[in-house]
Amino acid sequence: MKQMLSFFLYLFIFQACTPTLTPKQKHIPYLDEKDEHATFFVVDDKPMLLLAGEPLNSTGSYPIRLDEVLTEMNEAHYNTALIAISWQMIEPEENQFNFTYVDDLLRIAQNNEIKIGLLWFGAWKNGISPYAPGWVLSDTKRFQRVRTISGENTQTLSPLYEETRNADTKAFVALMDYIAEKDKDRTIITVQVENEIGVLGQSRDYSEEANKAFAENVPDELINYLTNNRKSLEPELLKKWEESGFKTSGTWTEIFGDSPLTDLFFMAWHYSHYVDHVAGEGKKSYPLPMFANCWMSQKLPQTLVPGNFPSGGPVLQVL
To answer: Which of 45, 66, 177, 198 lies 20 to 30 Å from 232, alpha-carbon distance?
Structure first.
């Protein structure tokens, strides 16, 4: 093959939905959870094992190259390609949407008889925000950034501000609306929401809103979950909570201690709420199975520290 394909280990977070169909209409891809021993990913009305490869991130913005890559993947017996569509591609100016790239993707994928797992590069990609539109990145007052401990802006949009979340959600919903209308052949079978979320270079956001939230009590929703699921918590989370005497009320440091792991838990809480909002609103338009992926921490001491991998993403410690 002309191009080395990149592979990632994904943490899949799916929500199943079996929609009502009109005559002769294909099912929207969904998860069949009727079997107590297994869950089946159903595509075109039968279970499908995704043999998926991921080309370079910008492949979806170059139709000629996209056609070459999908042809190569088909010949190599892949049945699915993971292709990025970014926020800046579909909304280069605020409220001015352009779905030409989506049209090209559907046409080329169908010609090459390959399914698509769409990667939504919205507010984040690999711990920073390079695929958000220029009109977002240039307005640091409206779209607040993650800040350093000294108060300087980073290259990462903060997950704690609704202005960013709502703009990202609006674009994602517009994308899902368009796919629902145009993709009658069910070429796009799943969607990744954001990409490798989390803060790089530091363990948490020090923006004004983040500092305020960090000083407040841990939300009751999380405390209730910890209490009801103590036996199944991941060891890192359980140990930090145990060190506080299993307190059920207090600030983030009072519940989990003063360490980068506490920052990891705090950021994971806020990123997960952001991503869940985006995914939930998108599913109202078109309920494809959706998932999140992570940049994994490695087993080397220097890379186990949150911030050396994106702090707040869906890594094992925060499951």
So the answer is: 198
- Cα distance between residue 136 and residue 265, in whole Å: 27
**How many C-beta atoms lie closer than 10 Å to residue 250's C-beta?**
13
What is the pTM assigned to this prediction?
Answer: 0.90
Q: Which residue do the tokens 């948490």 mark?
A: 204
Pairing mode, strands 115-125 and 188-195: parallel
Q: How far apart are CA 49 and CA 189, in angstroms?
A: 12
CA distance 80 to 187: 9
How far is 319 from 305, CA to CA, in rounded Å? 17
Residue given tokens 């139709």 in the structure block:
63
Which pLDDT tens digit goes with each residue over 77-121?
999 999 999 999 999 999 999 999 999 999 999 999 999 999 999
HSE-CB of 229 using CA atoms within 13 angstroms: 12
Query: Which alpha helices (H) appear in 31-161, and where do they start and end?
Result: 63-75, 87-90, 100-111, 134-137
Q: Which residues neighbour 277 within 8 Å (Cβ) at sequence distance 6 or greater? A: 165, 169
Q: How many CB atoms lie within 10 A of CB 288?
A: 25
> What is d(CA 297, CA 274) in angstroms, rounded to the nearest whole number?
22
Check: CB of residue 29 under 8 Å from CB of residue 68: no
- pLDDT value of residue 4: 34
